[in-house]
Design goal:
With 247 residues, the chain is of the alpha/beta class. The protein has eight helices and six strands; from the N terminus they run βααβαβαααβαββα.
C-alpha cells in the first residue's frame, strides 16, 4: 500500500477578497500561513514522513509547502515545481469578485464557470495584462500551452500527464510523496484517481490547508481517502468553498 498526501494552499489574499485567482500569483494571508503551518504540525504529529514534494509554480502553493515543511523540520526535502499543477486558469474572470459576478450573471452561471467540467469562462485576449503569456516562468512553453481560459476538463488534460510521467513513477518507486497545489488541480487529480463522473465532480470542493490522504493499492488505485484532523471541520471548510460563488 502507498500513501499520497495532497494539500490545497492556505488562504490567499484573493481567497479572502472572494476573487477569481487562477494563474494570478498572489500571496498567502496570515490565516493562510497559519493553515499551512497547522497542516505541517498535523502531519508531524501523525508521524508522516516524505521523500519528495511537488508543487505548482504559483507562490501561494509554494509558500504553503515551505511553511508546512518548515513546521515538520523537513525544509531540506527535495521539491519539484511543475506548472502543470497550477490552478485552473479563469480567463476573463481573473481578478473579479465572485459574488459580484453572481449578482450580474446569476448564481447558476457562476457555478457553471466555477465548477462545470467542460464549460470555460470567457477567454482573455492574448495581450491582456492579466494573462501569463509574457511571464518568464512560462517562457519555455509553447504559447498555446499557456491558457487564456480553462475548464476543469482542460486542467485534467495537463494534470494527468504530470501524474503519469512524474508523480505515479515516484510513488511506485517507493518515494513518499506530498503535493501542495490548488483547488482545481487537486480536483482534477481526485477525479482521475476516484474515477468521478463529469457531473459529479461539480459537487467536490477542496478546503484550504487540510491534508487529504489517499491510500493506494499496488496499481495506485484508491483504497480509501480521508482528511487528517477534525472531519467535521474539513466538511464545513469545504462547504464554505462551495458558497464562495453565490450572490
Amino acid at each position: 500500500m502507498y500513501k499520497l498526501v495532497l494539500i490545497r494552499h492556505g488562504e490567499s489574499t484573493w481567497n479572502l477578497e472572494n476573487r477569481f485567482t487562477g494563474w494570478t500569483d498572489v500571496e498567502l494571508t496570515d490565516t493562510g500561513v497559519a493553515q499551512a503551518r497547522a497542516a505541517g504540525a498535523l502531519l508531524k504529529a501523525e508521524g508522516y514522513e516524505f521523500d519528495v514534494a511537488y508543487t505548482s509554480v504559483l507562490k501561494r502553493a509554494v509558500h504553503t509547502l515551505n511553511h508546512c515543511l518548515d513546521t515538520m523540520d523537513r525544509d531540506w526535502l527535495p521539491v519539484v515545481k511543475d506548472w502543470r499543477l497550477n490552478e485552473r486558469h479563469y480567463g476573463g474572470l481573473q481578478g473579479l469578485n465572485k459574488a459580484d459576478m453572481a449578482k450580474q450573471y446569476g448564481d447558476a452561471q457562476v457555478l457553471v464557470w466555477r465548477r462545470s467540467y467542460d464549460t470555460p469562462p470567457p477567454a482573455l485576449e492574448a495581450t491582456d495584462p492579466r494573462g501569463q503569456r509574457q511571464d518568464v516562468r512560462y517562457a519555455k512553453l509553447n504559447p498555446d500551452q499557456v491558457p487564456l481560459t480553462e475548464c476543469l476538463k482542460d486542467t485534467v488534460a495537463r494534470v494527468i500527464p504530470a501524474w503519469n510521467d512524474a508523480l505515479a513513477p515516484a510513488i511506485k518507486s517507493g518515494q513518499r510523496v506530498l503535493i501542495a497545489a490548488h483547488g482545481n488541480s487537486i480536483r482534477a487529480l481526485i477525479k482521475f484517481l476516484d474515477n468521478i463522473g463529469d457531473d459529479a465532480i461539480v459537487g467536490v470542493n477542496i478546503p484550504n490547508g487540510i491534508p487529504l490522504v489517499y491510500e493506494l493499492d499496488a496499481d495506485l488505485k484508491p483504497i480509501k481517502s480521508y482528511y487528517l484532523g477534525d472531519a467535521e471541520a474539513a466538511a464545513k471548510a469545504a462547504a464554505a468553498v462551495a458558497n464562495q460563488g453565490k450572490a
